[in-house]
Amino acid sequence: MSRLPLADRSNIPEELLYVWDRTAGTGQQLNIFRTLANNAELWRSYLRLGNALWSQCGLDVPTRELVILRTAILHHSTYEWHQHVTIGRNAGLSDERIVGLHHWRTGEVYSEAERSLLAYVDAVAVSDHPSMETHVELAKHFDNSTVVGINLLTGFYGMTAKFLGAMEVDTEVPFIGWQLNG
Fold first, then answer.
1. pLDDT tens-digit readout, 48-82
2. How many folded domains does the chain comprise?
3. For labeling, which of 6, 15, 38, 65 is most exposed (least CB within 10 Å)?
4. 177: number of Cβ within 10 Å
5. Predicted local distance difference test score (pLDDT) of residue 25
6. How far, in Å, CA of 39 to CA of 53, rounded?
7. CA distances for 51 relative to 15, 56, 128, 169, angstroms
8. Which domain holds residue 33?
9. Are the CB atoms for 34 and 6 separated by under 8 Å?
10. Is residue 139 domain-shared with residue 87, that is, in the same domain?
11. 96 and 118 together in one domain
């Protein structure tokens, strides 16, 4: 159960209703957004940064989702995992590649570039100072602009995982499961 009330449209200041309307579309508003909407101005800023990272991180959508899904695993974020499994599938990721993120080092479904990316994501999750070796390996496969994007994307989703956990935000439907058997 969420530690904060889930806001509804009537809780949003008039000048920020467009944020609610754009994110809800024709469906139900996501619980993460309903929780963030307890501070509507910060919610708008969160979305702006998230959207910029999605579109300007330098990664294609499937690769971006590998970063987000691996970050969800590392932070034990069921909500983040649950949401991004669907986004990853829609981007063309197979269930084998999604579930394989749990043990990517021993799997054979990732390219050399993806493996360097996942090693970097793992390193950033445990330290603000990934090893030079990890950085050099990443830089073999991605240009400087994309390295910046990868770092910020990883940090953003680590922050998001911490928010979701601290606020105890529940998935809208039953959890899909870490092995996609939910």
1. 999 999 999 999 999 999 999 999 999 999 999 99
2. 2
3. 15
4. 13
5. 81
6. 21
7. 20, 8, 24, 21
8. 9-54
9. yes
10. yes
11. yes
Phi-psi region of 167 (alpha: psi -120 to 50; beta: other; left: phi over 0): alpha
Does residue 114 register a pLDDT over 80? yes
Residue 37 has a pLDDT of: 98
> What CATH number is attached to the domain comprising 96?
1.20.1290.10
Q: In this structure, are 123 and 47 located in the same domain?
A: no
Residue-wise pLDDT for 151-163, tens only, equals: 999 999 999 999 9
* 119/133 Cα distance (integer angstroms): 10
Residue 182: pLDDT above 80?
Answer: no
Check whether 5 has a pLDDT greater than 90: yes
CA-CA distance, 14 to 4, in Å (whole number)?
21
Long-range contacts of 67-72 (CB under 8 A, 24+ apart): 67/117, 67/121, 67/150, 67/153, 67/154, 67/157, 68/153, 68/157, 69/98, 69/101, 70/101, 70/104, 70/118, 70/121, 70/122, 71/121, 71/125, 71/154, 71/157, 71/158, 71/161, 72/157, 72/161
Token pair listed for 174: 């039953």
pLDDT for position 136: 98
